[in-house]
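Below is the record:
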Amino acid sequence: MTRIPTVGIGKLFEGVSPSLMARVVGSDAVAITQSDIASIAYTIWDLSATSSAINSGSLDAADVVFDSLQTDDRWTVDDTGYNFRWAAAASLFPAFDAIKKTFRVEIVLTDTVAAEIALLFELTLSNLYSRAEA
């Protein structure tokens, strides 16, 4: 069974690593912790050009899941906080020559009882004029 607790929409700037954040709760409506997660897989799609995945891989729960809710200046949604944050490498989102591209990032967390939690993020690429070739 897959549950989809979060759909994020945001901007992605050329050459800058986006920070994908969410507050993720389990089937018991309690925030997940690192020990709740058996595996994490991600797939990135370029919605502007193809229906094929352009990147995929796995993440380590110790690197992206927090055991307590985080409230810092990166999280502007509410005062409760987040417990998932992935600073995805900018190289996973190729700019090519497109002025405007949209990427979909699908992250599937599988918990220790084999239930899946899906996080979806749609990011629109904005080229940085300061990086334009002369």
Summary: The helical segments are 61-64. The domain at 2-128 is CATH 2.60.40 (Immunoglobulin-like).
